């Protein structure tokens, strides 16, 4: 079984990554994330037949953070269609850090450049429909529960509370968006939804399965269900290539060549079209906010298994 992808090669890539964990630091601007163990590293691969290859810390829970921006985008696109969504958020990479405010004012019209930066994801959260924050969050949780096959996927309340207390930069972004007319929903509710979806908790193995659904264009081979349209999967995968690794996306596209999205808790969701989903967890981050060991691990895995899409 799976002899095309050797467990030993996965372990070798994990060891290569592991040697880099002390080159990074856990995110500290969200105090709860600073409690994570920087030495952890896990990688899980989900294959089209639903089998997994796992190495390291693949059942440790961590929060999605920016990886969740993919799923709020999917929900917003399903509910509103691309014309409405892209009237409020752009399709271009920024070259700036994920929480940057600078281009919001200098670029006209003042809409955020893409949905993978904080400003863009806050604009997307403002487009999610539902009665209150709970109902809006449920539409994201429902999607993730189906994608992971885990009905218990939930928000980590400590991380959510910790970000909420310290998120002045995100508040500034949201109020700027409100002023420029991009955000028409209630600012506090929109931020609350954004903080909560960032704090949704998963394991690397669950992330691998989510990556496999994207690799299969929204089709869940485990249940035979099309969870979202192929056209939306295509939009997500393209954003992953151009903006998924923040302002290191170009370098990652050259060195690894796989559509991927990272988060500041140390997760990376990678998706190799039609072949596999990969979930990585390594909370020590480089200066751009990507898992330092995770990137090295993926670089080696991509080379060994010829996963690059270019
Ligand atoms: N890059 C990230 O993962 C950022 C997400 C985090 N919740 C924030 O808004 O700062």
TrEMBL record:
Keyword Transmembrane: no
Keywords, sorted A to Z: Acetylation, Hydrolase
InterPro entries linked: Beta-lactam/transpept-like, Glutaminase
Protein family per UniProt: Belongs to the glutaminase family.
Organism: Brevibacillus invocatus
One Gene Ontology biological process: L-glutamine catabolic process
E.C. number(s) listed in UniProt: 3.5.1.2
Pfam family, one: Glutaminase
GO terms, molecular function: glutaminase activity
PANTHER family, sorted: GLUTAMINASE
SUPFAM superfamilies, sorted: beta-lactamase/transpeptidase-like (SSF56601)
Reactions catalysed: L-glutamine + H2O = L-glutamate + NH4(+)
Top-rank taxon: Bacteria
First-level EC class: hydrolase
Quaternary structure (record): Homotetramer.
Keyword Lipid metabolism: no
Binding site for substrate: 66, 118, 163, 170, 194, 246, 264
This protein's name: Glutaminase
Gene coding for it: glsA
